[in-house]
Amino acid sequence: MTRRLIVQADGGSRGNPGLAAYGAVVLDGATGAVLAERAAYLGEAVTNNVAEYSGLIAGLEAALAIDGTATLDVRLDSKLVVSQMSGAWKIKNAELQVLARRAHALVKGCQVTFTWVPRADNARADALANEAMDSRGTVSRDFAAGSGEAAGVAVPDAAGLAQAVRSAQRANSGAQRPARPVAPPTTVILIRHGMTADTDRNVFAGQALPGPDLHEYGRAQAAAAARELAAMLAVPWYGLEAPTRLLASPTARTLQTAAALAEVLGLEVEEAPGFIEQNFGQWDGLTGEQVEATHPDGPVSWRHDPDFAPPGGESRTQLGVRVKAALNDLVARYRGQTVVVAAHTMSIRAALGAALGAPPGAWNAFRVQPASINIIRLWEPGLTEIVCTSRTVA
Predict the structure, then answer these.
(1) What is the pLDDT of residue 387?
(2) Which value, in Å, is the radius of gyration of the alpha carbons in the chain?
(3) Cβ atoms of 197 and 348 closer than 8 Å
(4) Is 385 a catalytic residue?
(5) Are strands 18-28 and 4-14 parallel, antiparallel or unpaired?
(6) Closest CA to 277 of 315, 319, 309
(7) Position with higher pLDDT, 227 vs 79
(8) Which of 110, 152, 147 is nearest to 35 (CA)?
(9) Helices (H), 108-247
(10) What is the pLDDT of residues 264-316, one digit of tens each?
(11) How far is it, in rounded angstroms, from Cα 92 to Cα 26?
């Protein structure tokens, strides 16, 4: 018999927008026992609706962690969120669209109902939200088999730690602060594709379309990267807001990696040819040893001379011009937004080099693992920040 879990969630903002937090409770549908509680402070410029959606997402995540096959009975005192999640109302606000896509992605394939309840019937979630607002902290409590005995009380979870980072960066020099007023930055999350048979063989895999598919382990890597990114976004870091666009190089391996990300982010995949891999020309599909058989000095020249181009291909310098133009286009199109891009080793190295101002000859110092997460922020030429590089979980 399928287990039934009840999710109660709420969020509030004192000022709307203002000081905000969310609360969520998971109950056993058969006994009414409390199984989990979640709450977190969201900041001082957050709206009621964003807080309510954040509570919904936290409650869904907690319930699915208890039983990913359970039937979910979601009860909220927000008529807007219930109506939007049920499909009765359209979502016009861009930020709420992103949050709703994340919530829908979580319950994809689940049996779930969304029900409006009076505030009095949602008191526990409301109290948790106010607790987090008052303490500016995080609550993560799990109760063993509904016993009422908390396995952990008010212990900061990953979301709480992320919020602590966000608050600390706002308060000190941990995050780059422009010396003069400028437009908000565009955040670019670059994720290398998972492994393919060519990755295993260590060949020059360039722009051939469609190119190799991800193999079984590569697909698992892509799924793991998607889950890791979702965890990082659970409570946004300072400057790492929910993505609004999901782009991918037009090769099979990057599109397949982007498909795994789309499952978690709830975004449609758009092709981005500017981030396709370096063109290796006649070397495409060959190992270094095979290249050396006909071009003895080729691999050495390629590694050490940024202006060297394989026969019929492009040099790292040319690649850098192309990727920098693609980044500038993202800044122009998506100012102040977060964009995820599924890309390749060399195109990600070029993007990191552009953000750091490193010349093409230095890019080999960037290690870009399969399915790794790399994040940069771009205000305008000369004003950039690297948030993280080569974060991997598989």
Answers:
(1) 87
(2) 23
(3) no
(4) no
(5) antiparallel
(6) 319
(7) 79
(8) 147
(9) 123-135, 158-171, 197-201, 216-233
(10) 888 999 999 999 999 999 999 999 899 988 888 888 888 889 999 999 999 99
(11) 29
In this structure, what are the phi and psi dihedrals at residue 45, rounded to the nearest 5 degrees? -140, 45
| Eight-class DSSP state of 154 | S
Q: Is 277 a catalytic residue?
A: yes
* Average pLDDT score, the chain: 87
Domain range annotation of the chain: 4-171, 186-391
CA angle 300, 303, 307 (to 5 degrees): 105
Q: Buried b vs exposed e over 126-155: b needs ≥16 C-beta within 10 Å?
A: bebbbbbbeebbbbbbbbeebeeebeeeee
The total of other beta-carbon atoms located within 10 Å of residue 297's CB is: 10
Q: Pick the catalytic residue: 193, 228, 314, 344?
A: 193
Longest dimension (CA), the chain: 78
**Which residue among 228, 277, 314, 344 is the active-site one?**
277
4-171 maps to CATH 3.30.70.1400: no
Q: Is 186-391 assigned to CATH 3.40.50.1240? A: yes
pLDDT (0 to 100) of residue 178: 54
Tokens encoding 292: 């050396």
Phi, psi for 339 (deg, rounded to 5) = -125, 130
**Cα–Cα distance list, 75 to 66, 130, 252, 340, 380 (Å):** 18, 18, 41, 32, 44
How far apart CA 394 and CA 223 sit, in angstroms, is 9
What tokens appear for 99 in the block?
């949050």
Give tens-digit pLDDT for 190-249.
Answer: 999 999 999 888 899 999 999 999 998 899 899 889 888 887 886 556 567 789 999 999
Give the whole-angstrom CA distance, residue 268 versus residue 259.
8
* Cα angle value 41/103/389 (rounded, 5°): 70
